[in-house]
Design goal:
By secondary structure, this protein is α/β, with parallel strands linked by helices. The chain has a single domain, classed as Rossmann fold (3-Layer(aba) Sandwich). About 45% of the residues lie in helices and about 15% in strands. A seven-stranded parallel sheet has the order 3-2-1-4-5-6-7, with helices on both faces. The mean pLDDT is about 95. Bound molecules: NADP nicotinamide-adenine-dinucleotide phosphate. The site of NADP nicotinamide-adenine-dinucleotide phosphate has 30 residues, from helix 1, strand 2, helix 4 and helix 7.
């Protein structure tokens, strides 16, 4: 059972991370927003949350870099207090292509941004949450992807594999810390309306593919944020090592 309400959400200047921050703020959490390169949207969101009464800091950090991650969590310690919820949300994808055309540089970029980042942030969170280190417990939520199950052929098998690695971490870490007051879970969003698809070279990807979704529509960031919030809350007190698929039936 956690006593403080302090959440770190990586990659929260826009998209699912930003919506998740708004939801946690509504529920009384102090928020650490994080961005890598786009300061303006993160700062605008922070202003909005503060004007609504939330405590909120913004930390620039490339969470694929160990030093940046250590600095981020130290800043949270100093300015907010001990983290009680970590949402490993930061993630990237690259231009759509088949595996046979991928370079090592591209594959490694995907892996460090989507996998190494989540491991490093989880490490810092465990050191602060775990009963083993006199912490108060907490919750870690990994934002995976339905791609971990579909494999994303002809688009980004590297991205899909990075999310499958995240799922393995969800399971393995959850077992390591199950008696230390920390629950570790994940969500697997399907096709969600955010700017991420433009980074893959196809801004209209959700609409192109929505007819293949049993519910015949793309998802909204809030539909992911609500599941993240539930997993973080005490209402999910017996859930650990599991994933919630949020894919409209896919
Ligand atoms: P998004 O709009 O592209 O936002 C991702 C955010 O992550 C960006 O604000 C970016 O910050 C940040 N980021 C990326 N690498 C980072 C790093 N190394 N350090 C710190 N921040 C970093 O994406 P989204 O659609 O909201 O996706 C959020 C998560 O959901 C991702 O993990 C994604 O894989 C997952 N997901 C999304 C979908 C979907 O359909 N949208 C589906 C399944 C899973 P900067 O802009 O500052 O670089």
């Amino acid at each position: 059972m956690q006593s403080s309400k302090i959440v770190v959400i990586t990659g929260s200047g826009r998209g699912i991370g930003a919506t998740t921050a708004e939801l946690f703020a509504e529920h009384g959490y102090a928020i650490c927003l994080n961005y890598k390169s786009q300061a303006a949207p993160a700062n605008e969101l922070a202003e909005k949350l503060r004007s609504q009464g939330a405590k909120c800091i913004v930390v620039q950090a490339d969470v694929a870099q160990e030093d940046d991650v250590v600095r981020l969590f130290e800043q949270v310690d100093k300015e907010l207090g001990p983290v009680s919820v970590l949402v490993n949300n930061a993630g990237i994808l690259k231009q759509q292509m088949r595996l046979e055309d991928m370079t090592a540089e591209r594959i490694n970029t995907i892996l460090i941004n989507n996998v190494t980042s989540a491991f490093l942030c989880a490490r810092e969170a465990v050191k602060r949450m775990s009963f083993k280190y006199d912490g108060q417990g907490g919750s870690i939520i990994n934002v995976s992807s339905g791609a971990a199950k579909t494999g994303s052929p002809n688009e980004y098998v590297d991205y899909a594999a990075s999310k499958a690695a995240m799922d393995a971490m969800t399971r393995g870490l959850s077992l390591e810390v199950a008696t230390q007051g920390i629950r570790v879970n994940g969500v697997r969003p399907g096709l969600i309306y955010t700017d991420m698809h433009a980074d893959g070279g196809e801004p209209g990807r959700v609409d192109r593919l929505k007819e293949k979704i049993p519910m015949q529509r793309g998802g909204e960031p809030i539909e992911i944020a609500e599941a993240i919030y539930w997993l973080a809350s005490d209402k999910a007190s017996f859930a650990t090592g599991t994933n919630i698929d949020l894919m409209g039936g896919l």
